[in-house]
Structures are given as C-alpha cells and as structure tokens.
Design brief:
This protein has 115 residues and is mostly beta strands. The protein has a single domain, classed as Immunoglobulin-like, CATH 2.60.40. It is built from no helices and 11 strands. The two termini are 21 Å apart.
C-alpha cells in the first residue's frame, strides 16, 4: 500500500495489498480472529481531515464491513472510488480490527487524489 499518491477519476477501483508480519513471520488469514480494516480520511485543503470510511465500498476483494481478506500471500481490499467524488486528498490506512489482539506498526497507508 505504501506507494506514491495516485490521481484518479471517479469510478475507479484501487487494489490495496499488504503483508502483515510478526518477527518476520507472515500473518495469514487463520492467524488472527479479527481481520484488518480500512479507514479513509478526506482532506479538502480547508480544515481538518474528515473520516469518510462509512462510504467505502469493496469490489471483489474485501468485505462489506471494510475488512481486508487474505488471498494468496497478501491481505487485500479492492476499494471502489465511486462514492468519493469531492476534490481533494483521500488517505487510506490499514488498521487492526482488534488492537487487543494485534497492532499494525509501522502504519500502512495509501493516498489518492480526485481533482
């Protein structure tokens, strides 16, 4: 997920992929009971960023509850951008589904811009 900022037009799918490890050992689907989730923040350039995660839609990989799924050797979430229409920067963060079970460190983020 940690790539450059992507400029997108409306109605695009962003394939988000990440590896989770503990002490260099991959964490796979059966290793955790609560799946990682996405959080989406929107910044228009005026005022603080706003949480717009409730508008997130998955396309194939991912769940309607904004959870990543483990597929092959990676955690994946295909994010549809059609609900994100305002011009500005959207920051996507992969977060723990249960911080009592695990944390994601360092932070895993991606950004896209709608102009």
């Amino acid at each position: 997920m940690d790539n450059e900022v992507v400029k997108v037009k409306k109605n695009r799918v962003l394939p988000l992929k990440a590896h989770l490890c503990e002490n260099n050992t991959p964490i796979i689907g059966g290793d955790i009971s609560v799946l990682p989730v996405i959080q989406v923040l929107f910044a228009s350039g005026v005022g603080p960023a706003v949480d717009v995660t409730d508008q997130a839609l998955s396309a194939g990989q991912g769940t309607p509850g904004n959870q990543f799924v483990f597929s092959g050797s990676k955690w994946q979430f295909n994010l549809e951008t059609k609900n994100y229409t305002a011009a500005g920067t959207y920051t996507i963060t992969m977060g723990s589904g249960d911080t009592d079970e695990y944390v994601i460190n360092p932070t895993c983020t991606a950004q896209f811009v709608i102009e």
